[in-house]
Every structure is written in structure tokens, then in C-alpha cells.
Give the backbone structure.
Amino acid sequence: MNKTALITGATSGIGKATAYEFAKHGIQLIICGRRQERLDSIKKKLEPLTKVHTLQFDVRNKTDVKNAINSIPDNFKTIDILINNAGNAHGLDPIQDGSIDDWDAMMDINVKGLLYVSKAIIPQMTERQSGHIINIGSSAGKEVYPKGNVYCGSKHAVLAITEGMRIDLNPYGIKVGAVNPGLVETEFSKVRFKGDAIADTVYKGFDALQAEDIAEIIYFVVSRPTHVNIADLLVFPTAQANSTTVKKEL
Ligand code: NDP
Ligand code: 8X3
């Protein structure tokens, strides 16, 4: 596929697997994250398959986001596909015990970071009257679970923003959609539980989704014909029925 994609959160999990999947199909890549050494090693692995440019920035810093996107070299500048994937949960606490720092992190990264990156890239898409934006939401954006309060709020916001983008960008022929996974075994729980051993138990006793499962779905979404836009997609592991119902065999 003769296209360029920018993927945020490409150093791990779903974003990294999507970079690998896109590279297999010859999509030129701009991979983003804070951990430069990981970006470098992914670039090295993928370069036999496609052209790769790395961008290191924290999506919370709007100036850095803007400067990073402005620094993209000419041969990568036309971004056909934006995958707004960077994000995480921080903590799992009842609202009365929640940490304000955790709340800030989730709203700043999952919601405001997504907006900063989109703001920097949408103008070139409206100018060309083409483009495809996929926001990685979550089942937590469709359903609130106990102690999920602010994370669920951030992902509900992602879905509302996705719908708003689709409406506002409709006159420009830009596709906008969300991919919403359930439980995917990535570094997500390590980050959520700040390295606590409880993270190792989250995906035990059932076959969780793997990052590659979601990456294949994202490629399917971007490879539909021009007149087809997959607007919203919810994906669970077979063992999961909703946020609180997971069939485990321990
Ligand atoms: P990972 O923790 O494996 O990956 C998160 C990615 O986001 C990393 O590449 C990380 O890169 C990047 N990131 C985090 N914070 C920042 C920041 N401040 N600035 C720039 N990049 C940042 O998690 P997943 O792959 O699971 O998560 C990807 C997305 O999928 C998230 O939006 C998450 O909410 C969503 N999701 C995950 C599910 C799951 O069960 N795993 C289910 C549903 C949705 P770096 O640290 O290098 O900056
Ligand atoms: C991640 C899925 O259920 O761990 O968005 O919140 S969950």
C-alpha cells in the first residue's frame, strides 16, 4: 500500500504491533513514543520492509507535539493515516481514593494528547481532502466498570471526540473511526499498576487478546476501499463478555 502512517505509542503493545503489520504491507511509517532506544530498534527491524522515520515526544506537551510534527522530513510529510494510539490507564482505585496525578495523566495523555496530535495533522488532511484517522478507544469507552472511573471517562471522551471528528471532517472526505479493544496483553497493566506484581495476574487463566490481533484489525480497517469507513469496532477476547464478565480457568 503506497501510503504513509503516523502511529503514536509505537514503542510497545498495540502501536508497535500495528507498525509491524503496516510494514508488512509496505506502508511507510512515522513511529512515535517517548523511548527513543525502542524507536531506534523498531526502525532497524522494519527498514528492510518499508521506510521508517522516528519522532520522540510526549503527547502531553503541546509545543513538543507541534515541533515534532513540523520537523517531519519532506519525504514523510504527507500523512495519509493517523493512528492515535498512545495512552494508558494509571491506577485502579475507587473515586474517593483516586490519585489526582493519575487522573491528570489519563486525561492529559488519552484525551488532550490525542487532540494535540490530531490538531497538528488535520490541516494537511483537510487541505488535500483525504486522510484516515483511527482513534484507539476501549471497551472502557462504552461501559464503566468498578474503579475504572477516570480511565473509563477518558475513553468515553475518545469516543465522543471520534464522533465529533467524523462529523466535522465529513465535508473533506476524511475517514474517522475508533477501534475499541477489550483485554489485550501488553504493557498496559504494568503501567496501570506501576510495576506491582498484580499486573501479572490480569491476563492469567484465559486467552487474552494479543497486540497482533488488534494490529491485524487496524490494517483491515485502513485497507477498505475508499467508499468504506469502519466507524466503530468493539473487539473482545472470546473469554470476555463485557468489562466485568471474563471466563477464567485457574
Ligand atoms: P502499552 O503500555 O503497551 O503501550 C502504550 C504506548 O503509549 C507506548 O508505546 C507508550 O510509549 C505510549 N505512551 C504512553 N504515554 C505516552 C506519552 N505521555 N507520550 C507519548 N507516548 C506515550 O499499552 P497498549 O498497547 O495496551 O495501549 C495502547 C492503547 O490501547 C492505549 O490508548 C490504551 O488505552 C488502549 N487500550 C488498551 C487495552 C489493553 O487491554 N491493553 C484495551 C483497550 C484499549 P512511551 O512509553 O515510549 O512513550
Ligand atoms: C483497556 C481495557 O478493561 O483493562 O482499555 O480497561 S480494560
User: Anything to note?
Assistant: The helical segments are 13-24, 36-46, 62-70, 100-128, 149-169, 188-192, 211-222. Residues 100-128 form the longest helix (29 residues). The chain has a mean pLDDT of 98.
